[in-house]
Amino acid sequence: MSSLFRSLPSVDACLRWLEEALPSAPHSVLLESCRLVLDQLREEIRAGRLTDETELRPEAVRPRLLDAARRKDRPRFCRVINAAGVVVHTNLGRSVLAKEAQEAVRVAASGYSNLEFNLETGERGSRVSLVEDLLRSLTGAEAALVVNNNAAAVLLMLDTLCKGGEVILSRGQLVEIGGSFRIPDVMERSGATLREVGTTNRTHLADYERALSENTRAVLWVHPSNYRVIGFHSSVPPRELANFAHDHGLPMLEDLGSGSLMDFSPWGLHDEPTVPDVGRQGNDGVTFSGDKVLGGP
Ligand SMILES: *Cc1c(COP(=O)(O)O)cnc(C)c1O
Question: Does residue 32 belong to any structural domain of this protein?
């Protein structure tokens, strides 16, 4: 083993060779690659997986160095082929932007813009005002706000309206989306207390009723975006739940997930409520993603 360790090339030798092979790569990338490969070789010797001295010769080590350096030097974020069978895939960049949206992003990002400048008054403006009236007319909502993503929107909504109080939610809607967005965790972060009611497959109005207390701040509805309960199940229709909330002076809030603005049933996507539907059902606040079905940047 010690003779194997002695046969390891030096960092300097590896670096000199890599600099010749990849002259345009940054020095730090090449140095890190050398250290990485040498660490791996040491580990392999220690573990008894590398026992043959020929594996430490330049012709064996160089391809590994080159591979490590190329991996480190290429962009992390790249195009992939979506063979998942899911068109709007949460992990694969979601919606592809329309040509017009791509062009608008390019134009905005390649120069200065009026993001926070009011061209009429010549004074500081609000970025929210650029889209609020458009969203209002598309959704029928009284007001609208755009934040980083839907997870942030849910957190802000709960923090603003429900902090320090309780929020009633059906156990059938305690969802996890994409591995890191979990309703109970977001709720905890917001400072509101989750009051779960009903069961996984069935929740009735009486369950909500029993959970009411003087600490209740809202009734929440979460769209189960990535799963379906089929068979023996029931939930309270959103309109009925909104009426119930209003009868008790509470807001009905909804995390709608994808947030489509169009009815997709002519294309075979049924039971997907649109944002305007949700408003018509009496909801007081709704959050949704901008990059799923809406297909925005
Ligand atoms: C996707 C989704 C979220 C998270 O939305 P992001 O835009 O990824 O932050 C939250 N809730 C539901 C129901 C979702 O479908």
Answer: yes
**Which residue range forms the structural domain that includes residue 239?**
147-288
Residues of the chain under the 50 pLDDT cut: none
What count of other Cβ atoms lies within 10 Å of the Cβ of residue 284? Answer: 17
Give a yes or no: residue 8 inside a domain: yes
User: 147-160, pLDDT tens digit by residue?
Assistant: 999 999 999 999 99
Q: Closest Cα to atom 5, ligand 1: which residue?
A: 150
For the record, the structure tokens of 194 come out as 């989750």
Tell how far the Cα of 254 is from the centroid of ligand 1, in angstroms: 12
pTM of the predicted structure, to 2 decimals: 0.84
* pLDDT tens for each residue of 238-252: 999 999 999 999 999
- Mutate which of 181, 226, 293 to test ligand 1's pocket (most atoms within 8 Å of Cβ)? 181
Question: Dmax over Cα atoms in the chain, in whole Å?
Answer: 82
Select from 142, 172, 179 the least CA-distant residue to 286.
Answer: 142
Q: Is 153 in the pocket of ligand 1 (CB under 6 A)?
A: no
Judge if the beta carbon of residue 223 lies within 6 A of ligand 1.
yes
